[in-house]
Specification:
Mean pLDDT: 79
Low-confidence stretches: 1-45
Helix content: 55-70%
Structural class: mainly alpha
Strand content: under 5%
Order of helices and strands: HHEHHHHHHHE
Number of helices: 9
Number of strands: 2
Distance between the termini: 40 Å
């Protein structure tokens, strides 16, 4: 039986969100959390309940989004607009995933949406907006992963709780994936430039296959690039947020 965090890996399409510190929402995948272990039927029921709660939240979010009018809030270049119902969705998701408190869920969710908003805006302005074909290819790849993963049965269960077919589900994720892929395109280009400027091998933003041997040349280059990248990323986000007004719409 997988842990909550492992199971959520397939249920929530946040593959690219990891690029903008999804750990702010305490969704890190710890290897020790993902180890198969002997559990009681009570644990299995708990996992099923988790999927059901996530599906219920997703349905509620989708239902609300269908009735929302386009936001009419007038904003300036110094405003970061956060939609309240979207913030509440992430807060509730964080609580389902085991956030320590409502305060922690609020703060981490708000920080996540602020970063996501400013990075997406910057990415679009720089010409990195993902097109329809790119999003379609991303859906195809992720769908293939879920079809062949150990968690495929849980994914099917999640869809049954949602009351959606796989096609309906992936179509419902198009906008989310477009935002994530746009940010990914933008940040990847920056990290690639850092690697080139420092004569280092480029490692993708999602790369996790590096050797654990800290003395190996591959690891040394990987670590150097990651240190340079993290410093640049933190400065970039701080610069994008600095001096901005955070406005939460009703």
């Amino acid at each position: 039986m997988r842990s909550k965090k492992c199971i959520l890996g397939f249920a929530l399409i946040i593959v690219f969100s990891a690029l903008i510190n999804i750990s702010d929402l305490e969704y890190q995948n710890n290897d020790t959390d993902c180890q198969t272990s002997e559990n009681t039927n009570k644990s299995e029921i708990s996992d099923i309940d988790l999927l059901r709660k996530l599906a219920e939240l997703e349905k509620q979010y989708n239902d609300i989004s269908l009735t929302q009018n386009n936001d009419k809030t007038q904003s300036s270049e110094n405003d970061i607009i956060i939609n309240r119902y979207e913030l509440e969705y992430y807060e509730n998701r964080a609580l389902i995933m085991g956030a320590n408190s409502e305060k922690d869920a609020h703060e981490s969710s708000l920080q996540y949406l602020i970063k996501r908003t400013v990075l997406y805006k910057a990415a679009v302005e720089k010409g990195f907006e993902a097109n329809f074909e790119e999003v379609t290819e991303s859906i195809r790849k992720q769908s293939d992963v879920f079809e062949n993963a150990e968690s495929s049965e849980q994914f099917d269960m999640y869809l049954s709780f949602l009351g959606q077919s796989k096609e309906e589900y992936w179509n419902s994720q198009r906008n989310t994936l477009k935002i994530d892929l746009t940010i990914y395109n933008y940040l990847s280009s920056i990290k690639r430039k850092i690697a080139e400027d420092n004569n280092l091998n480029y490692y993708d933003l999602n790369y996790i296959g590096i050797s654990a041997d800290e003395k190996s040349q591959d690891y040394i280059e990987y670590k150097k690039l990651e240190d340079l990248w993290q410093e640049y990323y933190e400065n970039l986000v701080n610069k994008l947020i600095e001096g901005k007004n955070i406005i939460i719409t009703e």
